[in-house]
Write a structure and sequence with these properties.
With 80 residues, the protein is mostly helical. 60% of the residues lie in helices and 0% in strands. It is built from 5 helices and no strands.
Length: 80
């Protein structure tokens, strides 16, 4: 799995766990709906740590908790 896919799946997983829609998550995180939509659709190829931190802040979790998922183990090496 590629890191972008793992990120998308983790966001979906956390939304389900917290009974949130993407709109609700964007509102909690203070990021625009279009930014979140671009992440989830794959149009954003360079999600920053700052954006992931905002998602974590909205969900009241820390970065290690966000990345503590089997989704991020054994990611494919990506060469650009």
């Amino acid at each position: 799995m590629r890191s972008k896919e793992a990120l998308q799946k983790r966001i979906c997983e956390l939304c389900r766990q917290n009974c949130l829609t993407l709109t609700g998550l964007a509102s909690l995180c203070g990021i625009t709906q279009s930014t979140l939509n671009n992440i989830m659709s794959g149009r954003n190829n360079s999600v920053t740590v700052s954006t992931v931190q905002k998602i974590c802040d909205g969900l009241q979790i820390d970065l290690p908790t966000f990345f503590d998922s089997d989704l991020f183990r054994d990611l494919e090496q990506e060469i650009y």
